[in-house]
Predict the structure.
Amino acid sequence: MDWVRMISKKSFFLGLSFLIIILLATLPLYIPPYPVISLTSIIMYIIITVSWAIFSGPTRYISLASAAFFGVGVYTSAILGEALLLPVVIVIGGLVSFILALFIGLLTLRLRGMYFIIFTFGISELIRHSLLWWETKMMGTVGRWVVAVDHVVVYYVILVIFALALLTAYLVKRSRFGLALKSIGEQEEAATHIGINATVVKTIAFAMSAFFMGAAGAIMATRWTYIDPKIAFNPLFSFMPVLMAIFGGTGQLYGPIFGAALFAYLEEILITKFPYYYMLIFGSILIVVILFLPHGVVGLVQKWRKGGLKRQNANP
């Protein structure tokens, strides 16, 4: 029966997710330090991409403010790292990004389409250049040193943030709140007419996604030890999650995870071998995906599976 198949499918993916988390948690016990450091960067991109998909996936609002929220977390760690315990700094980094997203959401989430995309990217650039101006003119120096933390500790903290982001995305997707987000993405006017406060729902989801980006930025700053506005608010942190999510597909939770993991690994390779061309390669892949895979790789796999089931039913 269909409902039995659905329950089995959910149980399978929940069990698989749990096993993957357990496997990731035990990796530092038997692999060298460098793969652990590389895996930390990959998980960081997965967190940003999954967080981005919590809001942008169902609503279809393309946000380019990820760099702003991530960078705020980085600077929170740089400013408070010496005075407070690491867990407190991470939570504060997430909360500051959450509050910033609430403010941005209330200002911008009445905009749609290209206007919203441009405004969110403009916010990231405004914060980056404002901080650069402040440090240059007022502080007399650019950048800050951050309290360094052991790479294994950074790995486990980023893994916990990943697990929480994944759990949040799963619960939102299967809640009434997630249904409201999806209805906004399908037809916002109709959602408003049936009683959904679209602005409030969008703003809460936007701020929720920003929390995990800020928390990830706060812990990653301790791995870099030195940061400045160009590092913290790198525009790549705004564009890469969009590319990763679109490539993987936003229809299912594992789509952004797959896209982020693959592209983060490719970035590690291409940035060393083709430092002047890797963004051109990524851009070309994005164009191909938009033209030929509008639902991403996961959508293509689902299409193949449905086609196979139809052929199976037609030829019992």
About this structure: The first helix runs from residue 2 to 26. The mean pLDDT is 82.
